[in-house]
Specification:
Two copies of one chain form a homodimer.
Chain A (H helix, E strand, L loop, with lengths): L2 H13 L2 H7 L4 H15 L4 E4 L2 E4 L1 H27 L5 E7 L4 H15 L3 E7 L2 H9 L5 E6 L6 E15 L10 E2 L9 E2 L6 H9 L16 H10 L3 E5 L13 E4 L4 E10 L5 H13 L12 E2 L4
Parallel strand pairs in A: 3-4, 3-5, 7-10, 8-9, 11-12
Antiparallel strand pairs in A: 1-2, 5-11, 6-9, 6-10, 6-11
Helix pairs in contact in A: 1-2, 1-3, 1-4, 2-3, 5-9
The structure holds a DNA duplex (30 and 30 nucleotides).
Chain lengths: 308, 308
Amino acid sequence: MNLQQLGYLVALDTHRQFGLAAEKSFVSQPALSVQVQKLEEELGVLLFDRTQRGAEPTAVGAQVIAQARRVLHEAQQLRELVQVAKGEVVGELRLGVISTLAPYLVPRFLVGLSTAYPNLRVHIEELRSEEIMLRLKDYRLDVGLLVTPLDDRLLHELPLLDEPFLLLASEDHPLAARATVSPADLASPGLWLMQEGHCFRNQVLNLCGRAASTGAVAYESGSIETLKELVRHHHGYTLVPELAVLDEVDSNPLLKRFVAPTPVREVSLVVHHGFVRTTLLTALRELILASVPTRLRAGKSGEKIRWR
Amino acid sequence: MNLQQLGYLVALDTHRQFGLAAEKSFVSQPALSVQVQKLEEELGVLLFDRTQRGAEPTAVGAQVIAQARRVLHEAQQLRELVQVAKGEVVGELRLGVISTLAPYLVPRFLVGLSTAYPNLRVHIEELRSEEIMLRLKDYRLDVGLLVTPLDDRLLHELPLLDEPFLLLASEDHPLAARATVSPADLASPGLWLMQEGHCFRNQVLNLCGRAASTGAVAYESGSIETLKELVRHHHGYTLVPELAVLDEVDSNPLLKRFVAPTPVREVSLVVHHGFVRTTLLTALRELILASVPTRLRAGKSGEKIRWR
DNA sequence: TAAATTTATAACCAAAACCTATAAGCAGCG
DNA sequence: CGCTGCTTATAGGTTTTGGTTATAAATTTA
């Protein structure tokens, strides 16, 4: 067994085809085939069922592949450990961000990050929270930027912000006349929600005690921006996180703050336990914190709303 | 980087000398030297300081070695995973047992174990609890047999027994006349203790509320057997775990049971999290449980005495 | 049935890892 | 001071390993 073979194994699992996996591994198809065969021989089990359409892991194979990922990850950690010791921030950063944070936060720190570390290749993907958690655990992402707490033993959370929820009302909605609002007001009809699967939706539902009454039209949006536009053009109201309305929060009278205790969402950087690139993680935290108003920083006050 | 090189690295750390490490790795000294050099070159850091007396890890080197152990461990887990899937119980089992359990428990299951799995090489070492915990975390032991709970995130406990403490009095000690005893009686003078470092000593001290008053002679023993002999030949009394006196527990009037709630020590098999050889672990548990009276099995009753 | 697609095998080549032999560096000691 | 004895490093040659291209074999698809 060697790391190369384990790499081929994982590539083959990813692409489910010897030729394709070989291409992605920058070797010829026979090279990869032979190495997988050798590994199977050494372990004494069939790891893949070969068909004409490609390769499928066997039951044992799937377990072995998962373990191979762990081995490769630990090996990668070793390399990163050395880079940290040398004070280098290089290589690749695969960052997963939820879509209710990405448009408001990423543009604030992305340029700063790649300026500070020109040798760092940054990949950012917009994903649902659950998917980010899965990929962090699979080592297919390095860092997640999402809403916590997650209560997951394998993941380590680094809280950044306690971001207040605000209520955005359309001008002809009864709530438009209010100076502040409270969770009880969310029983009022006309609340627009994010679609299923977004943690923001769960949070809003938790905040209003699951008593949300939607309007006559049941359009569930995939982005905060759509929610805002819906409210601007139609009746109804919605909840938004403060970062989504930062530039109008003081000027727009239709944006209502909640009375204390302010409901907030805890925004954190999340990594797999044993993540060793501390310089990078710290830099990322500092860049993000520096890019938002101080009042949003974690630990100030407010009541954390959970989404799971 | 490859697994071979990481193996050489760990061997060199263990033996602190290229020649010796090479010998233990079954290769020539130049072979090992060259591979370590190559790894250093690839990583771009010096991992060992070479002196005339041998090799010492640098600061980075020590970190890299620790990580290398993790990589090799995960690779080993992969192999064991396959063996489990094939239903094989082979290879090596490195078991650490504390000295207050070893003489009473090991002989009861050892023959059964090697009979059930003739292809398993069993290494048993008698060690202190702390040392067992360290070695489990370093992957220098596979399984520990000791007293729990340990409250250690990295270790997984599989409780086997709740083993009562008994009091053994010499015939001329005031306690000899008693039918049963209670923790309060441990204020009575003449209590013999295990030496510092044994978890059994801590448990006895915890049980008697640290109020132990030793006799005129302050001999602290290294084994339960010595304690028993001391009591048989001198004045005084001591505490013993039930397994140490199994064949005389009903016949010897100088052995006193505690009144309820019976103080017990929880005896467990302990492994590193992610231990995959479930068949072996289950077999070990069943063998041990079958070798002791049913009344000792974990979860029956009694009050667990902690040692840390 | 032929074409296309996929994995396996064969023959050959290059690189990596190993071995033996030996050099080189340094501590300790007469 | 210059041996001896210990260490690690280097050199030259051999074996092993992993790689390539070419091609066969098998099965799905048109």
